[in-house]
Amino acid sequence: MMFDRWIWLMAWRDSRASRRKLFLFSCSIVLGIAALVSITSLGRNLELAVADQAKTLLGADLVVSARQPFSARAEELIKELGGEQAREVAFSSMALFPKTEGTRLVQIRSLTDGFPFYGKFETAPVEAGESFRSLPGALVEESLMNQFNAKVGDPIKLGQLILPIAGILQKIPGEALVFSTIAPRVYIPATELPKTKLVKAESLARFKVFIKYPSTINVEALAKKHRNTSKDLRLELETVEDRKRDLGRSLNNLQTFLSLGGFIALLLGGVGVASAIHVHVKEKVPGVAVLRCLGASASRTVQIYVAQGMGLGLTGAIVGGALGVILQFFLPRVVQDFVALQIDYRIAWPSVFGAMGAGFLICVLFTLLPILPLRRVSPLAVLRASEAEPLQGDPARWLIFGLMGLGITAFSLWQSTKWYHGLAFTGGILAAFGLLAGVAKILTQVARKVISRSWPYVWRQGLANLHRPNNRTTLLMLSLGLGTFLVLTMFLVQQTLLVDLLPSGHGRQPNTVLFDVQSDQIEGVERLLKDRDLEILQRSPVVTMRLASVKGRAIGDLLKAPDRQRAPNWVLRREFRSTWRDQLVDTEESVAGYWPAERAQDVTPISLESGIAKDLGVTIGDDLVFDVQGVPITTRVAHLRNVDWRRMSPNFFVVFPSNSLEAAPAFHILTTRTPTAAAGAEMHHELIGTFPNISLIDLTLVLKTVDVIISKISLAVRFMAMFILGTGFLVLVAAILTGRYQRMQESILLRTLGASRRKVLQILLIEYFLLGFFASLTGVLLALGGAWALVHFTFKLPFHPPMLAAMVTVTSVCVITMGTGLAMSWGVLNRPPLEILRGE
Amino acid sequence: MNDKLVLEVNALTKSYSTSGGPLTVLRDVTFGLGESRTCAIVGPSGSGKTTLLGLCAGLDQPTSGTVHLNGIGIHGMNEDGRAQLRSLLIGFVFQNFQLLSTLTARENVMVPVELRGDSGADDLAIELLDRVGLADRMDHYPVQLSGGEQQRVALARAFINRPKILFADEPTGNLDSDTSGKVIDLLFDLNRAAGTALVLVTHNLELASMTDCIIKLRGGKMVGSL
Fold first, then answer.
1. Is some CB atom of chain A closer than 8 A to the CB atom of B103?
2. Nearest residue in chain A measured CA to CA from B168
3. Which residues of chain A have a CB within 8 Å of the CB of B117?
């Protein structure tokens, strides 16, 4: 009979002396389950939010957009599309707050009546979302208002236009808040746009038409019908379904990232539970032998402890589930900035129970392995002290390993959008666990071999504790090492990105970029800068163009070719902003050919950035035709160069030689370096006053913005890391407590034999120090490897290992481990040996 | 004397393989024990007493030879089969009591009946604990009982199944002489009352002399029986 009443009764009776311990062990999986419950519930809430807010994601049924003003043919198509229409022109420019004289690059959006057709702008005051159009006034994003301490009613100057601020913009339908940090948005009525005098034919702007249809119209079918025509006209069509798909993908990625983090915490907790059960079960061998002697079969005896494992899993699942439901109040706040949705808090019971079930199963699976040896306990053990036979050769062991692998893989596949991501995650987890367990194994073997009789007694004893029976080396290596690895990796990546982007405080690195400087403004801008003793570090003319053909094949034909046989879409369709000059700048490095190149009669030689040349599949001697604002220019690749894109200076994919593009409509980019923030602000103010169309990027502000975004991302990472670290800490406490019972006897014996409290304390501290040191060292090495891989392969940046952070991490983990160990062992150290001997 | 044998041991041998070759700890032991009869196994340390008891009780398998309990050959059975037979026919008393530390006295006594899936375990346990003089200690845990009390609980547990045969391994080895005497008296009283056969392993010749027969072992061989 499987799990009959007697089994449950015996499991309950047998747990009497160890219930507090068992509850503590179950805490190891509580945080993992809590994380999973809250994350899967969040996922469900996000799905519901997408379904509820589908139309408000776009604010319309269909959006037509273009990077240039709509041509006559495009206008015909828009007319044909019909419906109720609203228009928007969006572009970047400087905003000036006359009251404080503050300036900042913003995204200006001019809007006609109607939009949003679904949802509404959330503004303060509420009516400003509509009234700004009739007032007329501007809606200014909250972050911008806060930066310049602006209030509703204050003026804002955009180009030549001064408008009162009609309201604070708090939320835009379908847009995530985090992007506002890059370029805060300012809405103005479309009627006011011409007064800014900011949009010219060559300006970089995005033009949109929002369309609302009656519910009888099949918008998807309509969009499908016009998609090919719109492509030819360089128009993009976006429907609600398109937006949902895009959003679904990004939400899936976010949820996958968070839930896999939670799963790592759960697995770590599983390891903790398994280790604790291992110790628990070892203490039970004599009792099992008695039961076997009294006639209990092997399977019934094992069932008692499996039932305890199930009880443990159930307790963990219930406590974790409850904690997860509470956490749901906070999780939406962590991710709110990343998603363009209003996330409402609803307890998603199927998700809660699903995650609790997954946690329960993982817990039970992890307890099976240490329970398995009980099958082999001989009833003869009641007559002779013997332990359960080792597991080697027990086929059931491989069955359990298989089940564990299947469980982990199944969960990973369930959480991942692509099957190979799931397998890669499983592989990564197994590799990290395997590596840490391998290092633990090596450590125990080294500890066994290196101990010398000449060493002080406390060091010999402390080191020996790493390899002696029932040691906690593997468990602590896993919990502390994995926690250190994950948290430090994220920290290192964040630091590397910031350090790399940060301009050095000295030298000639620019900290201000002026762009959209028109040709007739160059002289005036140069004079203004010279009057303020500001040196122009770089001046680049910019001409916008698109590719018309590559190696004789028209872009239209290439786009129809199978993906594998051509360059990616974004390369073929992108708008190239190219410059002309005859020399390389210090962010560039020659790879092949010569620059300036000799000019042939009918073709213009160009220098291509090596990465884009690879994407286009071209090399020296290949021909490219560019459409320079309606004029085709045939070019030949004469030179390839690497570009250091990380440097905050104007960089280009395509460089033309002098005397080739001068006739084309162009604007200019200038860079300079202002010595102080005050000097910079003064210059900004005067520049914007004199040349309102010029945009100005304060690189210091950009870096602060990058820092804010990375901080927001790392908040989500830290949120997950908190679970992993928390679980690691609980596993640490559980491991030390289980070890305490093992170490207690020998500590007592040592004290009985005359060892001082100080000596026993030293032995314990040495053991905990060594465990903390090697676990954190392995975690740090893994983190250095992981961060290097991320920085090198994903961000393509050089990695500078921050040794200080590594040392601080190792020291902190050692101190925490020793502190926890000491706190957990204090009772044993402070009581007289006799009292403990009696008690035990 | 009853001629029906409860325990029949024939040419029993037990060897272990060691790095230095096979080590025979019990060689060619043959004896029988009738219903309600008592028998002591004596001999110096390492003579094979415990090994013989373990084999007779089906706690281990012989290398060769046969063991029949109540006419059933247990030498060819697998461990689960022997476990079932133990729950039906055998009672045990050990030198170090072997009570389950997390169970109360009453619960310890109930285990064999519960294992068989029979009802009425609680009443039987109370009755037996009363008989061994522990009616007022039945809800105490082993750690709260003295050695003598623990052994009396073990006796109650051994008899709750109404076993055909009881195996006792040095039942007084951990007790002082006064307590030993009381436990021995109780053991024999219960044995007689239940009509159970008894196999006793002991160093105590005085105790051995109280049994119907004595088997002497030395170096794994049976060197005599009285």
1. yes
2. A383
3. 6
Q: Which of residues 150-209 of B touch A (CB under 8 A)?
A: 157, 169
To which residue do tokens 């084309």 refer? A664
Q: How many domains does chain B contain in total?
A: 1
Chain segment A523-541, per-residue pLDDT in tens: 899 898 888 888 888 888 9
Asked whether the beta carbons of residue A290 and residue B100 sit closer than 8 angstroms, the reply is yes
Amino acid at A200: K
Mention every residue, 6+ apart, whose C-beta is less than 8 A from residue A490: A714, A717, A718, A721
DSSP B174: T
pLDDT tens digits for range A697-729:
777 666 666 666 666 666 666 666 677 777 777
Lowest-pLDDT range, A122-131, A547-556, A754-763, B166-175? A754-763
- Give the C-alpha separation, A263 to A794, whole Å: 24
Q: List the single range of A97-106, A720-729, B80-89 with lowest mean pLDDT.
A: A720-729
CA A399 to chain centre: 36
Structure token pair of residue A595 = 């620059």
| Touching A: B residues 64-93, CB under 8 Å | 79-80, 83-88, 90, 92
- Do B28 and B221 touch, CB atoms closer than 8 A? yes
- The chain B residue lying nearest A380, using CA atoms, is B59
Please answer yes or no on whether A383 and B50 come within 8 Å at the CB atom. Answer: yes
Enumerate the residues of chain B whose CB falls inside 8 A of the CB of residue A291: 100, 111, 115
* Cβ-based contacts of B86 with chain A (< 8 Å): 293-295, 379
Partner residue facing B102 (CB), from A13, A296, A300: A13
Which residues in chain A touch residue B90, judged by CB atoms under 8 angstroms apart?
295
Of B84, B85, B114, the CB nearest to A6: B114
Contacts of residue A93, defined as CB under 8 A and 6 or more positions apart, other chains included, come to: A105, A106, A108, A158, A159, A196, A198, A516, A693, A695
The range of the structural domain enclosing residue B75 comes to: 5-225
Q: Which residue of chain A comes nearest to B112, CA vs CA?
A: A294
Strand partners, A640: A592, A608
Looking at this predicted complex, what is its ipTM?
0.81
* Pairwise CB contact (< 8 Å): B98 & A290: yes
Looking at every residue in chain A, the average pLDDT score rounds to 81
Comparing CB atoms, the residue among A296, A299, A380 nearest residue B115 is A296
* Token digits of residue A784: 């250095």
Q: In Å, how far is B65's CA from the nearest CA of chain A?
A: 19
Contact yes or no for B83 and A297 at CB 8 A? yes
Tell me the C-alpha to C-alpha distance, in Å, between residue A370 and each of A170, A282, A298, A305, A309: 55, 9, 15, 10, 10
Mean pLDDT value across residues A449-457: 81
| Interior angle at CA A672, CA A671 and CA A674, nearest 5 | 145
B-chain residues within 8 Å CB-CB of A9?
A: 114
The whole-angstrom separation of Cα A105 and Cα A103 is 7
Q: Which residues on chain A are in Cβ contact (under 8 Å) with B52?
A: none
Three-state SS at A663:
coil
**Residue B66: enclosing H or E segment and its boundaries?**
strand B64-69
Residue type, A524: G
Domain ranges of chain A: 1-57+248-407, 58-246, 444-506+700-840, 536-672
Give dist(CA A614, CA A138) in Å, integer.
45
Instruction: Report CA Rg, chain A.
Output: 34
A504 Cβ neighbours under 8 A, 6+ residues apart: none
Q: What CA–CA distance (Å, rounded) separates A418 from A167?
A: 44
- With a CB cutoff of 8 Å and minimum separation 6, the contacts of A386 are A378, A380
CATH of the domain at B212: 3.40.50.300
Per-residue pLDDT at A470: 66
Q: From A464, A410, A405, A467, select the one nearest A433 (Cα to Cα).
A: A405
Q: Which residues of B touch A16 (CB under 8 A)?
A: 102
